[in-house]
Amino acid sequence: MKLDDLKTRLMLDSRNEEERAERRFYFIGLILSVLLTVASFASVMTGLLPRAWIFPTLVILALTQIVVHLRVFLHIDLSRQKREDLQLLLFTILLLSIMAFGTLWIMASLSARM
Amino acid sequence: MSQETNVHPGMNLGYSDGEHEAEVKVFGFWVFVMSDLVTFGLVFAIFGTMAGATAGGPGPEDVTDLKSIALQTALLLGSSFGFSWASLSMKYHNQRWRTLGWLAVAATSALSFLIVEAIDFRDWYHMGAVPQRSGYLSALWALVGLHGLHVAGGLVWMAAMTGQILRYGLTDQIKSRVTRMGLYWHFLDIVWIGIFSMVFLAGVA
Lengths: 114, 205
Known about the structure:
The complex is a heterodimer of chains A (114) and B (205).
Chain A (H helix, E strand, L loop, with lengths): L1 H8 L4 H32 L5 H22 L10 H31 L1
Helix pairs in contact in A: 2-3
Chain B lengths: L18 H32 L9 H4 L2 H27 L3 H31 L8 H34 L3 H33 L1
Helix pairs in contact in B: 1-5, 1-6, 3-4, 3-6, 4-5, 5-6
């Protein structure tokens, strides 16, 4: 009884351990997001990269950061209970890719013929 | 990461009852968020087709103020993080004022984001970079404006949640609403990643 009391006071009981783990997870997500964002801005602002590499770098950094946000802030993962959420996300991305890349392709082609 | 069951997107708050109902509601909201993703994605696609269509008017290098964009990025990320902290206070401490404090941090940060964005809009207006000037500018205003409107809508929602927390306390129903608001809020931050990298950084690269 006394030990439990002490644990609660020192925030060492399981509920708080869980809380600490979750807070740590969010912190890691925040740090990764900041690093990726700084890398994106740096790739443009420092001029260290060859021009041709900047756009692919930006795409990769943005996609990585989106995955970090989905995992950490939106809790999308590969576990079995979450399959429906992931499937909905992937199906939406499939539909969106067809429409978005279709639009870009057709309009670029039209523009090239004009 | 905790080992408790993860039944829906966003933070699982551990409701005392009505778990299934909460799961269904959050999933339904996730469907809405995905439909919003399609909307944003198509506006992005239109922006892509218009990227070079400046018609001799102001182009990306004229409208992009990287310091301002960096500040907006930091403010929105800060707001998203503040909202997570509000949700965590709600989940583990069930203290009204602590939750409201973090909600206030998230709201202030988002409001500052909107103010900085509005200053950018004003600058664009003064340099003649208005939507009707060119296809590029129409698409730019549509995309950035749509995101800004979403953030403004989120602020109204946050104000409504603050009122409800004050009136009813942290009941299960309120927690479920805040969870859904969290999905919306983090989603807007994801859209902003696309905007700052593809519209502004790629525009001046």
